[in-house]
Amino acid sequence: MTLVGSPDMEEAEAPVPGPSQHPLNGDPTDGSRPSAAPDQPAYTGDYAATMRLIPVPPPSTPPPPVAAITTPPHVAGERYIGKYHVKGELGRGGMGAVYLAEQPGLGREVAIKELIQSADPVALKRFLQEAQVMARTSHPNLVQVHDMELQGSVNYLVMEFIRGRSLREWINQAQIPPPQVFAVMHGVLQALDYAHRQHIVHRDMKPENVLISDEGMVKVADFGIARLTDDSGIGGTATKTGTTVGTPQYMSPEQVASSKVDGRSDLYSAGIMFYELVAGQPPFTASDADGPFTLMAKHVQAPPKPPSVFRPGLNPELEQVILKALAKRPEDRFQTGHEFDDAVSRVADQMCPGWQRSLEPGADLSQMVPRPGNAAVVPATPIGIAISQPGAAIQHPQVVYNPTPPVKRAAKRSMGCVSLFGVLAAIAGAIVLLEAAAVLSPG
User: Fold this and answer.
1) What is the residue-averaged pLDDT of the chain?
2) Which helix (H) or strand (E) holds 160?
């Protein structure tokens, strides 16, 4: 019989230490080591038998795989996407369902988005490449991409799970206070600027893709997913293939025209969001009977109404920033998210000092009003009045937007000197005739 870990050693050759040889009893020849107490009997068990109970693998045995440690066995009756345990469905969209799942080993919650199955293979490949880029990058205003999973013919995107609500849900619930409008736009533009520097374009910026966490963080989600139906070309620049991509309410003119799309297209869509947050409605609307193409045509051709049409007395600098973001030509807009964000922040500092903290839980928005020293230089706007003087009401003249130029009224023809002389001569002649008739009349 052999010892575990020593196959060439016979059991009879295994030394069994006696009472005086046990390490815990000390060496009788060494005075520095304590000896066993004389009144305690020494243990004289079979150490060879004890060693045989310990499963010691040989040194050449490889370590167990990480999956065996971090991935527990699947529970019967439960759903899994790859290694992720699905806990429930969060919602459904155009791309498919979104699930709440738990990552084994770490125990953290993740959101798993089901990707469209009918995507062009080349477009899907390019999207997966962009997802890999996003997974290697990190920004506090971006929803982090953790992993990709393929199950059958369906691709899944594993992302950071954000507890909170979308900007669309917030807009539908109530009018967002101005300091928080600035804070939301700051987070969105920070995220866009970072992604554009990584050469990634969102292509579908809208309130539904902006998340506000319970801690007050702004997160932009679904970067690059629109590419699944947008681009099947070869190369590094996103081009259109005859299909329109994105949400018509927020599409840029170049998206509608099927021309090249870059980061400035996202900035236009962010400008539409900014307009909606400030004015209370988007700049372009269309009824269901008109259809989406009417709305898209307005993005290309129609000038946006100034936001002050809906918010009389609006800060003129704020209005100028919004209208610049909505320029039809990309070269006339803000060229980077950083430039756009700087312009917004300058106006926000004037109108709502401390706006950066407005999304924090328990933030006091009533303190985010212009300082007394700046009150003279900051225009009186509904934003400042609503915060500093909730009971005050200023009657502003109603502004009627008329996109067509007024018709020039025809000028009245003036009477010349010759015409006036003719009239006087006629009157004098009539008087002479009357006097002659009076003389000739009898009696």
Assistant:
1) 76
2) strand 154-160
Q: Which two tokens stand for residue 292?
A: 């989406």
pLDDT digits (tens, 9 = 90+) for 337-383: 999 999 999 999 999 999 999 999 999 999 998 765 444 344 445 55
Domain ranges of the chain: 1-48, 78-160, 164-388
Is 204 annotated in the active site? yes
For the stretch 118-141, pLDDT in tens is: 566 776 777 777 778 778 778 999
Residues 6+ apart with CB under 8 A from 83: 67, 70, 71, 103, 104
Q: What is the dihedral of CA 165, 169, 171, 172, to 10 degrees?
A: -150
- Does the structure show a pLDDT above 50 at 394? no
Q: How confident is the model at residue 396, as a pLDDT?
A: 42
CATH topology of domain 78-160: Phosphorylase Kinase; domain 1 (3.30.200)
Least confident of 145-149, 176-180, 224-228: 224-228
User: Of 30, 193, 204, 262, which residue is the catalytic one?
Assistant: 204
The domains spanning 78-160 and 164-388 adopt the same CATH topology: no
Buried b (16+ CB within 10 A) or exposed e, 35-45: eeeeeeeeeee
| 164-388 CATH pick, 1.10.510.10, 3.40.1190.20, 1.10.150.130, 3.10.490.10 | 1.10.510.10
Identify the burial level of 294 via C-beta atoms within 10 angstroms of its C-beta, where 0-12 means exposed, 13-18 middle and 19 or more buried: middle
Neighbour order of strands in the sheet with 210-213 = 164-166, 210-213, 218-220
Measure Cα distances from 245 to 202, 250, 394, 417 in Å: 11, 11, 43, 70
Q: Under 8 Å CB-to-CB from 310, ≥6 apart: which residues?
A: 279, 280, 281
Angle at 235 between CA 233 and CA 239, to 5 degrees: 50
Amino acid at 18: G
Average pLDDT of 265-274? 97
